Amino acid sequence: MPFVRFVGFSIVRAWQGFWRNAMMSLAATATVILMLVLLSALFIVISGLNHGLAFIESKVAVTARLEDNLTQVRLDRLIAEVEAMPGVASVDYVSPEAAMTRLEASYREIGRELDLGDPDSTITLFASLEIGLNDPEASGAVGAALSQNDDVERVLTKQAEYDTLLGIINVIRTVGIVGVGLVGLTVLFMIINTIRIAVYSRANEIEIMRLVGASDSFIRWPFILEGILCGLIGSVVTIFLVAAIWDPIQPAMVQVFQMPTAVSGQFLTTLSLLVLAVALGAVVGAILFIGGYLAGGAGDSTGCSAPDESFAAFCEAYDRLQREYVDELDPEKLAEGAIRGMFQYGVEDPNSGYMPPEQYQQALGDLSGAFGGIGAEMAIRNTEDPEDLAACTEFSSICRLVVIAPLAGTPAEEAGLQPGDVVLAVDGDPVDGSTMNDEISAIRGEPGTDVTLTLQREDGAPFDVTITRAEITLQEVETRMIDGHIGYIALNGFSAPASEQFAAALAQLLDDGADQVVFDLRNNPGGYINAAQEIASQFIGDGLIFTQESAGNDIKRYESTGEGVATDPDLPVVVLVNGGSASASEIVAAALQERGRATLIGEPTFGKNTVQVWGRLENEGGIRITISRWFTPDHDSVAPDGIQPDILAARTAETPADEDPALDAALEHLAAQPVAGDGEASAPRIVAPGAFEVPAVVGIVAARAIC
């Protein structure tokens, strides 16, 4: 009988705990008693109001004064008609003689005598029908029907007065019911909170039990039973208190609320059952609370709730850190670290992850194509080794934050920022020790607000420039004409406005006479896949662009929109790619390559074929979660090796800084291609892989930003 022994042991320990911690236990019991007494008082008042309401409704009646000389036949017919009316409960005929008898009786009740021989007396009594109603609301309809009857001289009713009184009582009753609900919730809250305080007061006792290897059940059940004991004692005491005061208040209930004596006796029994039920309900709530509370942290929990058993160790580690670590910890930093670790070590997907609030807001601004800022393109510059940007993870005396150029028509241009300006501080805070994301977030902000940059120009003294932020719209497209007939168009990202900007810029190049196109996707990290579909459709007139495949064999096809301005197959197109061309860039490049619409020149692309959704968290940060993979028109995956270009071309260690081997290779290839109607095109020239060095991806995109 291990279970019986365990129950007996738990009851004994609960009783011992109740008296060992008498102050807390008695406080919990007193709280139960106080709240239940208040609840009982409200219940008494509401019950009385209900009986008073029933009494008032029973007095609602209609009196019909009858015509003189009404024959018995007509009277019987009238009574039958009234009895048949909806809502009528009874019909009583009152003769003039009976009315006189009632009048004399009422006079005697007030100690007066009715003198009908007085010559000044004007009392005239009539025959009438007194109509009782089982539905007070029917009084209007009954009165209206009687008013139309020729045998009725006048109809008397006090419906308006009754309606007003009933309305007042109903309002009071509703308020009382709401009060009962609020008091009930207060009862539950007070019991739970009091027992919680009791648990906290015994944290050392609980910890000792844990150290000696006590199980959760061993610790939990005595506390639960102690909560039941407090609730039961409180409910029993409350019942005795109510029973003790019931005899004095019973006459008042009968007098004020017209409650019958038999009903008032039943009322005490009902009230006792209610008190016991409420107490037990409160105890059940306390049980649920204490059970979860102790299971989560043995009475000293910091509030971590495990979604399933596998997270129990996580919650335990969090609770132990909060309780035992020598210094005060920041819960927000602990939470962010846990989220990062969950993605980094649990998901093991470099494309899924957590973004802190500043980084998430910055990324949203980049994707939307509009944000509050000053309109300056900035970058990291390694003053000792300009080629080694990988060494510049944060700003220092060597790794500087420099202005590449202010955008036209922006606050940065109006403030006089110049290419090469070094940013030393933002709003007085030095940039050294921070990252590019930190400073982008600091410089960006709400339009209309000010930001102060401390700048150094060449070798001059530092100076401050205060700039009022405005809404900046990213210009994702750069164009120019080469040799008067080659349209060069570079796309920096696939943000929300990118596809419209690209279509307009490409159309303008064609209008300006471009008969060949160089499409530069180098260092383009991607963005919205819908933008990729629309931009690829500028060159592909119809057919498949790519497919998106999710779990459960859910396949979505992205076809050409058919709205392109450069779909003529005789228009030569070259696409420049490198290791920084990722995701949406690879969707476009692969589609143009496999559909035979363009020649790819440059280096292998990044190799990312996954699609993410972004979501905001409560701390204003965000998460990226991979939901699907995309595939090329030939159902190839670009991961992990990327798209292999048709013509390999890249910078080497000996390449001068002002030269662009990939663009030069593109121009050389286009020179051998006919324009529309000029004949056959020559095959692409393949460069041996060993003829150049393929540099590692060093985060060139992350090293440049628009603020």
3D architecture notes:
By secondary structure, this protein is an alpha+beta fold. The protein has 4 domains: 186 residues, no CATH class; 72 residues, no CATH class; 104 residues, Roll (Pdz3 Domain); 224 residues, 2-enoyl-CoA Hydratase, Chain A, domain 1, CATH 3.90.226.10. Strands 7, 8, 9, 10, 11, 12 and 24 form a 7-stranded antiparallel β-sheet that branches. The chain has a 6-stranded mixed β-sheet with strand order 14-15-16-19-20-23, with helices on both faces. Helix 1 crosses helix 8, helix 2 runs parallel beside helix 8 and helix 12 packs across helix 14. 31% of the residues are buried. About 7% of the residues have low confidence.
* Separate helix tally: 19
Q: Which of globular, elongated, flat, extended, rod-shaped describes the shape?
A: elongated
Rg measurement, Å: 44 Å
Mean pLDDT: 78
Total DSSP E strands: 24
CATH-defined architecture of the largest domain: Alpha-Beta Complex
For the termini, the CA-CA separation is 74 Å
Q: Domains counted in the coordinates: how many?
A: 4
Helix content: 40-55%
CATH fold node name of the largest domain:
2-enoyl-CoA Hydratase, Chain A, domain 1
Which structural class best describes the helix and strand composition?
alpha+beta
**Biggest beta sheet summary:** 7 strands, antiparallel
* Unreliable sequence segments: 256-265, 291-302, 679-704
CATH class of the largest domain: Alpha Beta
Query: How much of the sequence is in beta strands?
Result: 15-25%
CATH superfamily placement of the largest domain: 2-enoyl-CoA Hydratase, Chain A, domain 1
